[in-house]
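Our preliminary data section would be incomplete without showing what the modeling component actually yields. Below, a chain of 372 amino acids is followed by its predicted structure, encoded as tokens that our downstream tools consume directly.
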Amino acid sequence: MRLPVGPARFLKTQHLVAAFVVALLGLASTTGFVGARNSVTLVVDGVSATVSTDSQTVAALLAEADVTVASGDLVSPATDAPIDAGAVIVVRHEIPLTLDLAGQIIPMRVFGRTVADALVMAGLDPTGGISTEPGLDAPLTSGMTIVAKDVFVRVSEEEIVLSFDTDVSGDPNLGNGVRVVETKGRNGSAVRVWQVLVTGGVEGAKTLKAETVLEEPVTEVVRVGTRQPFRQVLAATKKLSGDSGPSYAPPVVGTVIRVEATAYTPYACGVNADWIAWRRRLYTIPAGWGVVAVDKHIIPFGTRMFVEGYGYAVAGDTGSAINGYKMDVCFWGASLSAPTPHEASAAQEAAARSLANRWGRKRGLRVTILGS
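Predicted structure:
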């Protein structure tokens, strides 16, 4: 059992007062302590005295006052700090001892005066009904053992349900909105072991000591169909007469420019299809038209166009990498439906990312700027 460690209360150490004062008087008569340059306050384990010294550092003053410190003791200011007139030097010595708590042996190093202080250092409330041997008011001594009574550890178990996760993905091979459960989800179970420290018959906070999984949950795998024509993609091309290869002439008339075109999705930009709906309202984009990102200095926002392999679109977005004759066509998986909003959103995103990945990067792509 691991207990929290709380701050100790620093109390005066009464039995040191007399010895410390005698030592200071001896120093005054043999070293000229009295009448020296600086007057400082020295506090050792709660016992304070005002002394005069010509020592320049805390370490020199402690040596002059015959106050020894070990590596674990507290000294403030630090031993290498200079001494100014009116300074307060505080020394607190650690007391090594052992706490027997419900049969568990806990080595401790305590700053304090009484057994109650040691309990506080161990994170226990000495006013909460704990009885100890020796008593709470007994002074602390180096190497002592404190046995806490009326304290025991209660262990309890509880079985909990581990809920299964759901993995939803779009499937372009299934009809739009068709939902197929590929793997049925199943809850798991686990046992948690709690430990409670009972003091004076009163339970304290519970501490989780262990959790053992009895049965792992099974993730439910769901595929949602996305197979449908995406209305923002109207890839209309036709062959020229007598030409066996594909024609790059769109079925529209306007000014033709050539661009380098990539593709993106709103999901990759930290937004969703609702953002596209807002852009379409902003630029009054007709149903079935797409949105493209452009350099607005080359193609003004609101410009209507036909993008080869993509369809009719409106310039309604931009980006830091879209400079000059570059363009980003947007796929967002429009008009998808599914049994739940979460599944619809997941299917839309999967379909949009798939189309954007297939688009890749097209150089010399023909774009027809439509007349008003």
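Confidence is low (pLDDT under 50) at residues 1-36, 229-250. The chain has four domains: 14-92, 95-149, 154-226, 228-370. Preliminary results of this kind motivate Aim 1 of the renewal.
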